[in-house]
Amino acid sequence: MFRENVRHAVHGLVVLPILLAGIALGIWSFVLGVQAESLPRVLLSVGIVLLFLIGLAGLFMVQPNQGRVLQLFGDYRGTVRAPGLRWANPSTASAASRCACATSTAPSSR
After folding, report:
1. What are 75-110's pLDDT values in tens digits?
2. Considering only CA atoms, which of 91, 90, 93 is closest in space to residue 79?
3. Among 56, 59, 58, 63, which Cα is nearest to 98's?
4. Does the residue 45 lie in any domain?
5. 3-state SS assignment for residue 41
6. How far apart are CA 64 and CA 71, in angstroms?
7. Exposed/middle/buried for 109, CB within 10 Å: 0-12, 13-18, 19+?
8. Residue 65, domain extent
9. Confidence (pLDDT) at 109
């Protein structure tokens, strides 16, 4: 029998400014490294920018009354049901697929 594992992903509006600031820092460091003609600094800057760009791949949107399945190498890791912009580990979020969430409705009394 399949049992759903509800996961709580980090709110995307918390992570997005951090990722964008990291990319800006990496670009700024790259420019300073080029001006100083420092190869190690340029390479470190490129690595920083790539790391934060990979982090952006972890952002995903969950619509109301829907969920997002998180998979890691094909194995089920959980479902995110909280609506809005969310962030999860990019290796799980990139393999995520959407799932329709059943909503319970109470019968109306007339």
Report:
1. 888 899 999 999 998 888 544 455 555 544 445 554
2. 93
3. 63
4. yes
5. helix
6. 21
7. exposed
8. 6-100
9. 53
Q: What is the DSSP string of 71-95?
A: EETTEEEEEE---EEEE--HHHHTT
What is the pLDDT at residue 98? Answer: 53
- What is the model's pTM? 0.76
Tell me, yes or no, whether 105 lies in a domain: no
- The one-letter amino acid at 24: A
Task: Tally the domains of the chain.
Answer: 1
Measured CA to CA, the distance from residue 62 to residue 109 in angstroms comes to 32
* Distance in angstroms (rounded) separating the CA atoms of residues 23 and 61: 21
Specify if 109 maps to a domain: no
Whether 48 maps to a domain, the answer reads: yes
pLDDT in tens, 16-48: 999 999 999 999 999 999 999 999 999 999 999
